[in-house]
Structures are given as C-alpha cells and as structure tokens.
C-alpha cells in the first residue's frame, strides 16, 4: 500500500509546483503564442525602417509585449464566461478559476499602463500612442464591443492586430510613412482568412458559446467564399510595397509565391469543404506572414 507523505516536507515539495503553476497561468494570460507573431512584425518593421540599436529594439519589444499581454489578460477576464463553454478555452486560467477575475483585470490594466509609460520614456510618444491604441482596440474594441455582437468582429478587430508594425516603424523613425501603412494593411487583410480558417475548425465551440463568428452566422460555404476573397485582396495589398518602390525584386518574388499559394489553398478549401483543407490553410497562414515580413527585411538589408 502506497504511503501518503505529510508534514513540512510534503508542503515544501508542493510549494514550488504551486508557484510554477501560478507563474505559468499569468504567462498564459498574456497569450504568448499570439504575441510571438505580432512582436515579429514589430521587429521586422523596425529593421525595414532603418538601423535601430539593440537597446531600442529590446525596449520596443518589451513595451509591445506588455501592451499585447495586457490586452490579452483583459480578454481572459472579460471572456471568462464564454471561455468556460468552449472545450478549447475551458482550461484557461480565469475560466477555470485558477486566477480570480479581479487579479486578471488588474494584471491587464497594470501591463497596459506600464507599457504606455515605458514606451513614452524609452522609445517615443508616437510609438507609445500607437501601442496604446492597439491595446484599447483589442481589449475594448474587439473583446467588449465586437466579438459577441457581429460576424464582422474579425475584420474590424483585426485592425488592433495590425498595429504592431506601425509601432516598430514609429519607434525607429518617430513618424509613419506610406510603406508603414502598407505593412498595416497587409496584416489587416491577412487576419480574416487566418482566423476564419480557425473558426471553421472551431465552429461548434463558437456556436455553443453564442459567439457570432462567420461560420455560425452565415454558414461554412460563405466563410470559405470570404476566405478566398480576402486571400485575393491580401495578394493585391502585398504587392503595394513593390509597386510603390519601397521594396525590390527579391521581395516581389517571395510575395508572389506566397500569395499565389494562399489563393490556391483557399480555392481548394472552397472546393473540398473539409477540415483538413481548413487546417492546412490556417497553418500556412502563420508561415505566410512570418516569411513575408522576413522577405521584406532581407530585401532591405541584403
């Protein structure tokens, strides 16, 4: 028969595990997986805009991480009721009860406020203002106003996710240019096909939670049609940096290859109407954005 260990020794053994879980939960509130791609677009924009110092890069990325993390924590706080209804999100720290709603909200607001001060003092006021606009856009605009009220939540909420390249550009130059605006719109038009592909996979979860994602409200066929439409629009927008003379032939070649591949995959999804095609498009869209921004950096630096 197994012995149950009790006493001070057992408590000492359990304490680090509890502390680790608490740290992991607070990290999860910041949505680090989502953040990683956003911060990559920030870094890429900085390297496209100029030759920033390592110190400026680090300061900007820390500020951006706090801003995005803060809005993520507020999203966890606000969506704790619907998160509990979806299998994919039921184990999130607030929904599961491991972190209290008040603690999550306080953490999110503290990160957002700290980011605003940090970027203002260590980077510049424009970068701070843009980052804070993204914070409000996601925490308030998308999470509180759009997500539960319209199937267009991803379209307009995507503007918040398109702000990081503007922050990176402003951090280096102290201003915005036409190329910076193109970067914003590339991410803006990338967002719908990316998240609608995911929503096709999670349609039942969203329906159970009463969230009016496009497949729930307009049906899967309309969602696949919209994915194809926005893939074509993204292809067109991604050519603007070359057409305007901001980037050269190396970028053009990569953007053509990526854009046509995405359109083909969207067309296949429309024809096959299966989960496998939706998953492939979703995963490729992650690669698409990372490689496209990396190609911009390579075009400028090489």
UniProtKB/TrEMBL annotation:
PANTHER family: 4-HYDROXYBENZOATE SOLANESYLTRANSFERASE, PROTOHEME IX FARNESYLTRANSFERASE, MITOCHONDRIAL. It is a multi-pass membrane protein. Pfam families: UbiA. InterPro entries: Protohaem_IX_farnesylTrfase, UbiA_prenyltransferase, UbiA_sf. Pathway: Porphyrin-containing compound metabolism; heme O biosynthesis; heme O from protoheme: step 1/1. The chain crosses the membrane at residues 103-121, 127-145, 166-190, 253-269, 281-301. It is found in: Cell membrane. It comes from freshwater metagenome. One of its GO terms (cellular component) is plasma membrane. GO terms for biological process: heme biosynthetic process. GO terms for molecular function: protoheme IX farnesyltransferase activity. Gene3D superfamilies: UbiA prenyltransferase. Its main location: membrane. Keywords: Cell membrane, Heme biosynthesis, Membrane, Transferase, Transmembrane, Transmembrane helix. This is Protoheme IX farnesyltransferase.
């Amino acid at each position: 028969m197994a012995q149950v260990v009790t006493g001070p020794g057992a408590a000492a053994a359990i304490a680090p595990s509890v502390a680790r879980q608490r740290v992991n939960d607070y990290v999860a509130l910041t949505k680090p997986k989502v953040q990683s791609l956003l911060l990559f677009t920030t870094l890429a924009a900085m390297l496209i805009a100029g030759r920033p110092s390592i110190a400026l890069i680090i300061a900007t990325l820390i500020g951006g991480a706090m801003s995005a993390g803060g809005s993520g924590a507020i999203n966890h706080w606000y969506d704790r009721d619907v998160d509990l209804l979806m299998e994919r999100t039921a184990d999130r720290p607030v929904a599961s009860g491991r972190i209290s709603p008040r603690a999550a909200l306080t953490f999110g607001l503290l990160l957002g406020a700290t980011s605003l001060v940090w970027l203002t003092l260590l980077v510049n006021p424009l970068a701070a203002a843009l980052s804070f606009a993204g914070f409000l856009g996601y925490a308030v605009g998308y999470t509180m106003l759009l997500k539960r009220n319209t199937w267009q939540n991803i379209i307009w909420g995507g503007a918040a996710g398109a702000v990081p390249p503007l922050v990176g550009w402003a951090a280096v130059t102290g201003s915005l240019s036409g190329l910076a605006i193109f970067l914003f719109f590339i991410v803006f038009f990338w967002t719908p096909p990316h998240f609608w592909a995911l929503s096709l996979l999670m349609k039942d979860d969203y329906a159970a939670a009463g969230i009016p994602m496009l497949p729930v409200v307009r049906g899967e066929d309309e969602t696949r049609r919209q994915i194809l439409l926005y893939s074509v629009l993204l292809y067109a927008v991604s050519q603007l940096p070359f057409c305007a003379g901001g980037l050269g032939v190396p970028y053009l070649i990569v953007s053509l290859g990526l854009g046509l591949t995405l359109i083909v995959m969207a067309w296949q999804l429309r024809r096959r109407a299966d989960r496998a095609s939706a998953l492939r498009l979703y995963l490729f869209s992650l690669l698409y954005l990372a490689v496209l921004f990396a190609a911009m950096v390579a075009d400028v630096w090489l």
